[in-house]
Amino acid sequence: MESFMKNIQSQTYVLNGWDFICSFSNIPFTFFYKNPNNDRSAPFMPSDQLHKSFLRTLQDFPILAGHLVVDGRGYIVVDKNNLNMPEYIESQSPINYEFVEAARFNWDALPIQPSTVPAIPSKNADGKIKLINVHVVRFRNNSGIALFVNMPHYVVDGIGYSAFMKRWAEVNKWMQGNCTAQLPHREYTFDRAVLESAMPEIIPPLSNSCSRIYKTKTLLGYFLSWLSPETRGSLLVEGNKLFSASGHVFYVTKNAIDKIRQQVTCDGQRLSDNDILTTMISHTVAKGFYDAQNNAGIIKSTTRSLMSSFLAPGEFLSLMTMDIRPRLKKLSQQTTQYLGGCITGLPIFNTINRLAQAGSSTAAFGSSCSLVRKAVNDLDEKYVGAVDSVIRGSNCYAHSLALAVTTREKLIVTNQTRFGLYDCDFGIGAPKWVGPMPTFLTNYSSILPTNPLDNQGYYVYMSLEKYLMESVLQNEFWSTHTSFVF
């Protein structure tokens, strides 16, 4: 701690629209590590060293010790005399790691849940939003650990999150070697001006689909923008509880994806795995809405008019998150890694009927895939510049959030396979499993990587309203092409 306090400097980071557009969400993962030593009495990721390496890593990520301040604009204020120190706790589990592994890392097998925060950034016990939360759960008999780490989207995105985790693993591994070699130097930047300077000079008009997401104003949006981040977070956490969610993990092989690819056409374009997975997930969730709307009493017409007036009757929105870094030439050429928010949501408007039929009609599946492929193809530098010109408005994020909250027939899909989550080797090899929280945002799905020893498919996590999840579990198309994990 003394070295950390000595090296950190006071500074202020000005946030921008890209940081706020996803600010309603945390980035939480749990990493499971097995003790590979036969002698379980030998040190395994010892507490002192793990915490010491964490603090050394924090020196490279000083923004994580700052205070979130919103006063007209947003700021992360790092005051060396008044730091917002991360939450870092350890717990002792009464079960062995082997029991958890045998249960395939099912949340229900854990008497102590690693996650310590909800899906939405909200105030801690001290009334502040922590910019990083860590919970180390040590399994019985020194058999392994579960390492939960969370960061809010206010400060970094998934790329920034994984950069911290890789650096922490690297520092810990270096300390494990008694620091005999020189610690590799890494350069990161959190200066939002770097992103702003990378935007194109010529800005085209915003597309119609994006205009619906970013330019629709609501009374709820104005209200949310008026609240402090802490109060807004608390309100959204309680609101998320109103829709009782259920979370499950599924496995999809690449062979299953290839078979679907061979059966559908998409205007002569080759469909990526992400195109097909996004369409599969969207179909499965939309089918749940389709069945519910045809089952009188589950979704009342009055509820629909109040909750989903943003969408036309029978319309469905898939919001697919994408990293804008590769689309910005100046940013992609930077040698210093920019770790601020760089996520945009690509809106894909479809109909519930078409998506519901995609499981039994290759034509419907192909046309739905075409919409996903077109959205990805349209995401270029000019597209990013057009979005940037709009989200610079102080209230834009709050209105988009209001639409996300009040739109029921929607699904957020994010692909997290490129984060390098299994590259986090603390000196004892890659994690055996990196998983999400038991439940997350309502109507949310993420495509997750597999352990490097199994590169034959993808994991798909879904956090859905319970009646939708029941439909997913009974969906013939989904169960034919996927397997249930937990």
Summed up:
With 486 residues, the chain is an alpha+beta fold. 38% of the residues lie in helices and 21% in strands.
Task: Please tag this protein with its features.
486 residues; alpha+beta; Chloramphenicol Acetyltransferase; five-stranded mixed β-sheet; 17 strands; Acyltransferase; acyltransferase activity, transferring groups other than amino-acyl groups; Plant_Fungal_Acyltransferase
Question: Strands, helices and their partners?
Answer:
Layout (H helix, E strand, L loop, with lengths): L1 H6 L3 E4 L2 H5 L4 E9 L12 H14 L6 E5 L1 E6 L8 E6 L4 H6 L30 E6 L5 E9 L5 H19 L11 E2 L2 H6 L10 H7 L4 H8 L2 H13 L3 E9 H10 L9 H21 L7 H7 L7 E9 L5 H4 L4 E2 L4 E9 H6 L4 H17 L2 H11 L4 H11 L3 E6 L17 E3 L8 E5 L8 E9 H9 L1 H6 L1 E2 L2
Parallel strand pairs: 5-6, 8-11, 10-13, 13-15
Antiparallel strand pairs: 1-4, 2-7, 2-14, 3-4, 6-7, 9-16, 9-17, 10-12, 15-16
Q: Can you describe this structure?
A:
The protein is an alpha+beta fold and 486 residues long. Helix 3 packs across helix 5, helix 11 (273-293) packs across helix 15 and helix 11 packs across helix 18. The model is unreliable at 298-308 (pLDDT under 50). 38% of the residues lie in helices and 21% in strands. Keywords: Transferase. It comes from Coemansia brasiliensis. It holds the Pfam family Transferase.
What is the CATH first-level class name of the largest domain?
A: Alpha Beta
Return the CATH architecture of the largest domain: 2-Layer Sandwich
What would the principal axes of the Cα set say about the shape?
globular
**CATH fold-level name of the largest domain:** Chloramphenicol Acetyltransferase
Structural class: alpha+beta
Strand count: 17
Biggest sheet: strands, sense, closure? 7 strands, mixed
Strand percent estimate = 15-25%
The strands making up the biggest β-sheet line up spatially as 12-10-13-15-16-9-17
Question: In the residues, how many domains can be counted?
Answer: 2
The number of helices is: 19
Radius of gyration over all CA atoms, rounded = 22 Å
Helix content: 25-40%
**Average of pLDDT:** 93
Distance between the ends: 40 Å
CATH H-level homologous superfamily name of the largest domain = Chloramphenicol acetyltransferase-like domain
